[in-house]
Amino acid sequence: MEQNKYGAAITYEYEQNLYINMTNQCCNSCDFCLRNNSAGSLYADNLWYQNGEPTKEEIWEELCRYDLHRFHELVFCGYGEPTYRIDDIVWLVDQLKERFGDKLPPVRINTNGHANLIQGRDVIPDLKGRIDTLSISLNANTAAEYVALCHPVQGEAAYQAMLDFAKEDKDYVPHVVFTVVDKGTAPEEIEESRRIADSLGVKLRVRSYIDS
Known about the structure:
about 20% strand
């Protein structure tokens, strides 16, 4: 990683995608999160910003250094929850679309689904025409299980807010996907997650647990 004043990777490549590390802020403290289980990450040497976070203009400058056409997806993520900076994501996507047009790869946000709680408003309409895929961490099948695993600052209300976010996004984003982490998860729990996803009209993806 090239050193910068923030002491962390702003962008990194993984499996033919380009990931944009938006923020270290998060309203969850998930038991399985790399932040709680590892000193580093297989994705980049360091994702933890030491000296503030890059401005949207600095992220834009970083993106302009790449030949973006070669990536399968552009993924807004973070060592935290990227929708803390949803306005900056919207601005960046608009800049990207203006510059690259139809040649821009599909755009994804990896999120915990709490954007409306975080921002105190409905951000979903802002995603239309900008975001191609929302990957939302489901992680549990009940509000109580979610609180025990993810420890959201909003408590059990966060779980229903995440479900509502997924359901409402279908009218604005072409691909909405729930993810669950398989860390010795019982098959019946996976099937219940699939039932929840089906009931909301979204897909389910089971992710392998990564401990580094």
